[in-house]
Amino acid sequence: MDYIKLGIIISVAIFLYLAFREYFSEGGGGFHDWVTNPDYRKAASDYFAARAALVVPDDISESEIRGMVERLFVEKDQDFNKERLKLVGIKALPFLIEALEDPQTAVKMFSKDGHALAERSPFERICNILEPLAPPSAVGALSRYIVHDNEHFRVYAALAMANIGTAECIPHTLKSLTDQNPQVCTFGMYGIDRGITAQRSEKAFLDAVFPTLIELLTRDDLSTTRTAPELLLAIDRDRATEILISSASLTVDNDRSHYNLLALNNAKVKIPHERLLPFLKTVKPLIDKYPHSYEYSAALVSYALNPDSNAEEVIQSELNSAEEVVRTGAGEAIVILHGVLDAYEYALKRMDDVGFDNLPSPLKHYLAVRIYDSEVNNGGHTQFFANSSGGHWMESLDGLKEMGAHERAKVLEEAIKLFGVSGPSRNGENRHKELAKLVSRHRKLFESLDQRYYSCTEDVNVLLAKYAVQNKQHFMEGARSEDSPLHIV
Question: Which of 190, 189, 134, 144 is nearest to 166 (CA)?
């Protein structure tokens, strides 16, 4: 797949960490090293190929499994020991529970010299391996970590316990959800979400945590954000909706209104006009102050999900708002109003089905522009060309021009010219070699192009939204180009 889902391009530094953890732990490495040394690309590719090729024999012995579990206590894992244990699966469970009950597991921590993404303890590794198993038999062994003095252990115990989701987990998960440390509370909710997603959470468990999740809607530290309302909606949609659109929740005096609306929108809940329209009217004069711009933006999307005869006029007028956050919400809303519920996800799904090269041009241009913009905003043009998305520079350029983003297109054109008459290679390995030479000579020039791009005045989110509406026959199943005339201005 050429593009990473969820709209987020993972930094190359993360891949480097995985491929060169020892190098990073010694303080070396960085994105510039990745760009200027293409050999890193091959090493990273070899790393992932080796990881993907892992196998565990069906007749693996108990002594071998025990040895693998014991190696979880060795900080540097040079041969994918944790990943191999995941492949062992249920056969490893007795030994993992035995390790949880070992007193050293409750005290052993790794050094603080490693990369921030590395596991910090054998306990964390064990919890990661247990996640897909979600074994009820581990509840007893996990329970003592729920009240551990060290928050690190409470965090991963909260995640593992809630992920199991049986009635026996209720008192322990409730303790995590009311923990004074916000990360413990958050990870407890992540565990609930994983259990719901895997359809293994027992009804008694979900019924028991529901009231505490309601209380978390107003937790002072804002650790709950969208998670608490989304979980409430997942557990009992009707009951949660009544709570989230109540006069106490949907008000400018509630600094969680934004998160509640995002959760409702994500669940495609149609908020009644008698609740939504007064809120829109009240919050609009306040959009120059945080968090009201976010509230108004989310409410515009809610309006599109349940429109009336005035919705299009209201939403279109906000496409030119002075507030970027409001423009983004209006862009999302106008697309929904025209029947395209999620242009990006739809485009990604079509690419999964037929491949990027076989997409119709509007979908190619939409994806290429969206990812180009994300890449450059994340790590500059060097990140764009270094990653697989850089192979679609031509579609990015054509898309920017078609959408009317001529300022940004000019910047990309100048970046492309640095590679010569033919432009960057479509082959990722060759393009990386070309980029390495260019960055070594013209690093400041790339940085200058980045700054020019950041200074462009065109709103990419609005342009993408208009483009999706204008080409909506390509962004929705069964739609036709002659459907309702468009008046996007």
Answer: 134
Q: What is the 3-state secondary structure (H, E, C) of the chain?
A: CCCCHHHCCCCHHHHHHHHCHHHHHCCCCCHHHHHHCCHHHHHHHHHHHHHHCCCCCCCCCHHHHHHHHHHHHCCCCCCCHHHHHHHHHHHHHHHHHHHHHCHHHHCCCCCCCCCCCCCCCHHHHHHHHHCCCCCHHHHHHHHHHHCCCCHHHHHHHHHHHHHHCCHHHHHHHHHHHCCCCHHHHHHHHHHHHHHHHCCCCCHHHHHHHHHHHHHHCCCCCCCCCCHHHHHHHHHCHHHHHHHHCCCCCCCCCCCCHHHHHHHHHHCCCCCCHHHHHHHHHHHHHHCCCCCHHHHHHHHHHHHHHCCCCCHHHHHHHHHHCCCHHHHHHHHHHHHHHCCCCCHHHHHHHHHHHHCHHHCCHHHHHHHHHHHHHHHHHHHHHHHHHHCHHHHHHHHHHHHHHHHCCHHHHHHHHHHHHCCCCCCCCCCHHHHHHHHHHHHHHHHHHHHHHHHHHHHCCCCHHHHHHHHHHHCHHHCCCCCCCCCCCCCCC
pTM of the predicted model as reported, rounded to 2 decimal places: 0.85
Report whether pLDDT(115) > 50: yes
pLDDT in tens, 59-94: 999 999 999 999 999 998 778 899 999 999 999 999
More confident residue, 476 or 137: 137
Alpha carbon 435 to its chain's center? 28
Task: Report whether pLDDT(126) > 70.
Answer: yes
Q: Averaged over 210-239, what is the pLDDT?
A: 91
Question: Which one has a higher pLDDT value, 36 or 257?
Answer: 257
pLDDT tens for 345-378 read 999 999 999 999 999 999 999 999 999 999 999 9
